[in-house]
Design a protein that fits this description.
The chain has two domains: 3-154, Winged helix-like DNA-binding domain superfamily/Winged helix DNA-binding domain (Arc Repressor Mutant, subunit A); 156-304, Aminopeptidase (3-Layer(aba) Sandwich). Helix content is 47%, strand content 19%. The chain has nine helices and ten strands. It has helices spanning 3-31, 46-55, 62-69, 73-85, 107-128, 133-154, 165-181, 245-259, 276-282, and strands at 60-61, 89-93, 101-105, 156-159, 204-211, 214-225, 228-236, 264-269, 286-287, 299-304. Strand 2 and strand 3 (101-105) form a beta hairpin. The longest helix is centred in the first third of the chain and has 29 residues, at 3-31. The protein is globular and about 65 Å long.
Amino acid sequence: MTLLMFSDYCQAMESQDIATVRSFSRMVTQRVGGLTDRFLGRDRPLAEARLMFEIGSEGKDVRQLRASLGLDSGYLSRLLRSLERQGLVQMASGDSDRRVRRALLTAAGELELAELDRGGDALARSMLEPLAVEDRQRLVRAMAEVERLLRLASLEIVLEDAASKEAQGCLRQYFDELDQRFAGGFDVARSLSADPQETRPPRGAFLLARLDDEVIGCGALKCLEPGVASIKRMWIAPDCRGMGFGRRILQALEVQAKALGVSLLRLETNRHLGGADVFYRRHGYRDVPPFNDDPYADFWFEKRIID
């Protein structure tokens, strides 16, 4: 196959993939009742019902609602006002910061949410019951995988200054976990440095990973010499592990490394980090003899990213 033919083939495959995604989206929208003003049999459109599910029995800050649902401020405000007028939601100040607005369900809202929950269960049963047991299991597994992959696709990875408030907060969580997991604890002053000035372009890079506007991970590059850089501060929040986010951060670091002219990546890791060595081997990093004297390192790895 010539290069031109291969390019045409890739474009055709991409068009087919896009068509499949759009067809799936249309089918799901219709199947869950997103096209009517009576979602789950209630006199309520999908957007209002979804917002009530997100508020839940504990309530939620408006900022959290905006992030988790991906809504702009104006549209979210209109939805909240509509639910307030119906006596289903009330707005209050945050417990620790009175400037923070918090949405809470009223007693009527709690009853409505319970009805929506029953309707949601009925809708789920209507999808599963017509299927044979084997097909039902296949559908449930497929839905779980689709949800996982959509969350993976929604991860936002951005360049950040390591001295920023968000970056420092993420690093504190990382260091606290190392201190708990390492035999004898962890002292950042004893480890090899990756200070903010060492992870700013062109000397390096610092990446933050956000999911639903919440920081859930980070990773850094520190250039060691021309063409060689070290991966540092690679971390994912414990409740977000096993979803592929670590792989995406690692891939993003490799892209940044290439942009900095790096051809060889190095890293070291500790045996107490729950299979981190297996993770790096799986992604093309090979074991090499120690190349530094990091007191917390048990494994040393390299990967050539530019031949």
